[in-house]
Amino acid sequence: MRLNPTRERYYKSLFLVGGVWNIVISLSLGMLALLVSSAWELFGMTVPPTLFFFNMMIGFVFVFGIGYIVVSRNINENHAIVILGGVIAKLMVFAGCVVTVSLGQAKAIMLVIGTVDLFFAILFVEFLNAVRKVK
Predict the structure, then answer these.
(1) Range of the domain at 129
(2) Which of the residues 28, 42, 66, 103 has an alpha carbon 20 to 30 A from that of 5?
């Protein structure tokens, strides 16, 4: 049993947009942090003593973006990417943004990025439920 063609196109588009979002946000934040040291002030943060962990996080965001694009090519496979990167990781990003802002370690603008990830996580959970019902 398969999803109807309209739903299938919607989910393929959802994962493609999610992949593009991750790639664009990772490249944008990565380049911004690298080229403009005052960019950290936009988020109410100071430049960390080492960018190792930031760069690793940006790399993971980029790789998950590629993963979502892979899922968009065939939504009947690669559900582990959806669970790990699309649900768990995105919920962790949202929670991290909420905690960081609530502790006063960053400005509320961080919640914008986190809220986009929360939105995608909810849509990806809905996808997983829809696929589970079809099987």
Answers:
(1) 5-134
(2) 66
